[in-house]
Specification:
heterodimer, B: 143 residues, elongated
Chain lengths: 119, 143
């Protein structure tokens, strides 16, 4: 029982290089199974995918923070993530879900300009 | 099994913890950023799965294995993950082997105990039969 407690107290960062996962493998498996054409997933593959996802979260957070253009230097905001998705190749697959935000009025203005062009 | 949309999300508490430990102390992470990272992580799982599955299908296999995932990670341009993943996998396989051996030992132990119990109860049954026989003999004498 006490060994279970030790594992819980291990920080997420330590766990990243070890044999246990912070993210629940059962949940990762659910997501994987929602992918079409996937029938069976071997246990090692499930472990690796879960681990890789943890590394991904760490990497995305760190990269976005370092390169971020957030207003405060000690903060990580959505725009930092959107910027990372646009600028770093490995993060390009995220551009659809992390779109850059523009002000509504800028969008409306660009719409007007487009309709003027077609006249 | 129908999945509800929230089932395809990863637990917020864990995502938050990983983010916090990846960044220097005191960095404020907005709620919006945390949600976005969580969604990005789910998309990552889907992308990695789809990519790994392509490798499996090419090899005419129906089961995704570790090699497929590693190949997918490399294809997705996350080579920096390969080394730590390999190390983690080795540690994981060792611990799984240890667990398997431990549960094998437990199973053998239980079977041995069950056999001992059976032997003991058989002896008790034989003793009871002998007592009964003695009882019947006494009754007959009384009648």
């Amino acid at each position: 029982m006490s060994s279970n407690k030790v594992e819980e107290n291990v920080s997420a960062t330590q766990a990243l290089s070890g044999r246990s996962t912070s993210l629940p493998m059962s949940r990762v498996k659910l997501i994987m199974k929602s992918s079409p054409d996937v029938s069976h997933i071997n246990q090692d593959a499930l472990f690796l995918t879960t681990k890789a996802t943890e590394l991904f979260v760490q990497h995305l957070a760190q990269y976005s923070f370092r390169k971020g253009c957030g207003k405060e230097r000690n903060a990580l905001g959505y725009s930092d993530l959107a910027k990372a998705a646009e600028e770093a190749e490995p993060f390009h697959f995220l551009t659809d879900i992390l779109p850059k935000k523009i002000l509504a009025r800028d969008y409306l203005r660009s719409l007007e300009e487009r309709t003027e062009d077609s006249d | 099994m129908a999945e509800r949309p929230e089932d395809l999300n990863l637990p917020n508490a864990v995502i938050t913890r990983i983010i916090k430990e990846a960044l220097p102390d005191g960095v404020n992470v907005s709620k919006e950023a945390r949600r976005a990272i969580s969604q990005a992580a789910s998309v990552f799982v889907l992308y990695a799965t789809s990519c790994a599955n392509n490798f499996a299908m090419k090899a005419k296999r129906k089961t995704l294995n570790a090699g497929d995932v590693m190949a997918a990670i490399e294809e997705m341009e996350f080579e920096r993950f390969l080394q730590p993943l390999q190390e983690a996998l080795e540690a994981y396989k060792k611990s799984q082997k240890g667990k398997k051996e431990a549960s094998e030992l437990k199973r053998k132990d239980r079977e041995r105990k069950a056999d001992d119990d059976n032997d003991r109860s058989r002896e008790e049954d034989i003793e009871e039969e002998q007592d009964d026989d003695e009882g019947e003999a006494e009754e007959e004498v009384e009648n």
